[in-house]
Design a protein that fits this description.
The chain is α+β, with helices and mostly antiparallel strands. The chain has 3 helices and 8 strands. It has a single domain, classed as Sandwich (Jelly Rolls).
C-alpha cells in the first residue's frame, strides 16, 4: 500500500515537471586568440592554421543546437592585420569534415581589420550551409586563405529551443487508516462513551 502511494506521488511530480518546462533563448561565445601568419596563393585555404570553435555541450549542463533552424544568430569574427596590397582574405567553415568557403574580403596592407561573417542574415552565405550539418555536433572549424596576420577568431551564437525544468516537490499523501485500525478506534470511543454514561 505504501509503495503504491509513493509511486502516485512520484508520478504527480513528473507531470508537474513536464507541464512547467519553459523554452528559453541561449547566448554563447567562444574565441581563439593566436598570432599567426596566414599565407596562401589566390585565397586558397591555408593548411597551417585552423581555429577550433565550440557549440555549448550537454556535459556542462547546456545544450548544443539540435538543428540549424533553432539558431537565430551565428556570427564568425576575424581580427588581424593586412600583409599585402589589396589582399583578398577568404573565410572557410568546416562542419562534419566538409570545408565550405563562406566569404571573401579585400584588406589593405598594414591595415588593422575586423571582419564579420553573418551566417544567418546574409542569404548568400547561408545558402552554403546544409541544416543537417549541425545535427549532433558540438564543435566546428574556421580557416582562412590570403596573406595577413591573424589575431583572433570568435563566434557569437544564439538560439532558442532549450528547456529549463522546474521541479515541484509534492508532499506524500497522508496514510489512510486500515479497517482494523478504524475498528479499534471506534471501540475505544464507544468504551469511553459507556464510562461517561455510567458516571
Amino acid at each position: 500500500m505504501k509503495e503504491v502511494k509513493k509511486l502516485y506521488g512520484f508520478l504527480i511530480v513528473l507531470l508537474l515537471i513536464a507541464s512547467n518546462s519553459q523554452a528559453f533563448n541561449f547566448d554563447f561565445y567562444d574565441e581563439v586568440v593566436a598570432n599567426q601568419q596566414i599565407s596562401s596563393l589566390s585565397g586558397e585555404r591555408y593548411d597551417g592554421f585552423t581555429a577550433n570553435l565550440k557549440f555549448p555541450t550537454s556535459a556542462s549542463s547546456e545544450y548544443y543546437p539540435l538543428s540549424y533552424n533553432d539558431i537565430t544568430r551565428f556570427e564568425i569574427t576575424l581580427a588581424g592585420y593586412g600583409n599585402a596590397p589589396n589582399g583578398d582574405i577568404s573565410v572557410y567553415l568546416n562542419l562534419n569534415s566538409m570545408w565550405i568557403e563562406l566569404a571573401s574580403y579585400t584588406v589593405d596592407e598594414n591595415d588593422e581589420f575586423c571582419l564579420k561573417v553573418d551566417l544567418k542574415n546574409d542569404k548568400e552565405v547561408e545558402s552554403y550551409i546544409n541544416g543537417d550539418d549541425f545535427m549532433g555536433i558540438d564543435s566546428f572549424q574556421v580557416a582562412y586563405g590570403g596573406n595577413f596576420s591573424h589575431s583572433s577568431t570568435s563566434v557569437n551564437l544564439e538560439w532558442s529551443g532549450g528547456y529549463v525544468m522546474m521541479v515541484v516537490v509534492v508532499p506524500e499523501p497522508e496514510p489512510i487508516p486500515e479497517p482494523a485500525s478504524l475498528i479499534l478506534l471506534l471501540a475505544g470511543i464507544l468504551k469511553l462513551s459507556l464510562r461517561s454514561i455510567k458516571r
